[in-house]
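Input/output pair, single chain:
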Amino acid sequence: MTSQLIKGKNIVKDDWVISELAKVEEIVKMQAGKVVAFKLSGEDYPTSEQVKKTIFPDTGKILLPLKVFILHQEKLKERLANGEIGIWFSTHEEIHKFTEAIVDLNNFPLIAIHVEKFADGRIFSIGSQLRNKYNFKNELRAFGDVLRDQIFFLKRSGFNSYLIRKDRDAKDAIKGLDDFSDPYQGASDILEPVWKRSKR
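Output:
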């Protein structure tokens, strides 16, 4: 199968296995014309039941759901030190709620943010926060509902790898990295605004 992972401006092989959360029973209700999923426990998603039931490989490089890593971090210390453990979380999860449970985000060679369905700009804020507030230096990946139109702005927010949706063309998505030649504002990828970078 052709890789959908973009790093820099290249399509590369993905060495990481994404550990999916365990499935749980849902109650689905209609509210304000939208389908809203309510978990039977009433807990935030993912639930503690999901976290406890999530299984993952004993070897190899794995991307673990954030809460699953926190639950198992004592037994994962050696694998983390060997660069085999990354974490992922969804755009509705607030990273500041979990930072006290993690010694140093830079211990992870990879942090990935999952977009279930692109509907707002939370992923851009999360990327910028990880780079600028928490000084995360390693690979920052976007995955899930990731499309060409977003990729330039994801780069500006601090992302440096992108797992493009399976039904889209990763080669075409790479072109999105050059949609704008010289961005005006400063951001995570180019700190200074254009008026400070250009001599007049």
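Helices lie at 48-53, 66-72, 77-81, 122-132, 148-156, 170-175, 194-197. Residues 32-36, 38-43, 193-197 have pLDDT under 50 and may be disordered.
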